[in-house]
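Before the break, one more example. Copy the sequence into your notebook; we will annotate it together after we see the structure.
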Amino acid sequence: MAQHLNAATLLELARAAQQRATSPCACTRTALDGWQSQPLSIDETLFEEIGTLMPEDDPEPTYSEYLPNQTTYWAANAPIAPRYFPYNRCGLWQCSSCGRLYLRYVEGGGYFVDRRIRAVNADLIEDVPLPA
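Here is what the structure looks like once it is written out:
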């Protein structure tokens, strides 16, 4: 099982990764600033899972989303709020070539499974508590 990461640790890792990863890489051929269905062109062998945002003590985390100011799920500027869906179901993956970080999870529906991916932008990480 991957190590659970809280928002503070995610932010620290994201800032460090953004300072290191400044050159183009095979993992950046497709813009992944907002959630995307994982492109078939992405070489999965480049990625190593380094942690998870899935809560350790909650087998069924909330499906509530945190989308302030009329932001949408797919938007590149949507906040990354680890306690909210879909972030609370994500693994944190790192490109072994350049060090960039990506969040990945599997969206499941009645007749489909869709692997989704989003690049981590430290400026968008927000530690927002769940409502009581």
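The CA atoms of residues 21 and 98 lie 6 Å apart. The beta strands are 36-37, 47-52, 91-95, 101-108, 113-119. Try to locate both features in your own notes.
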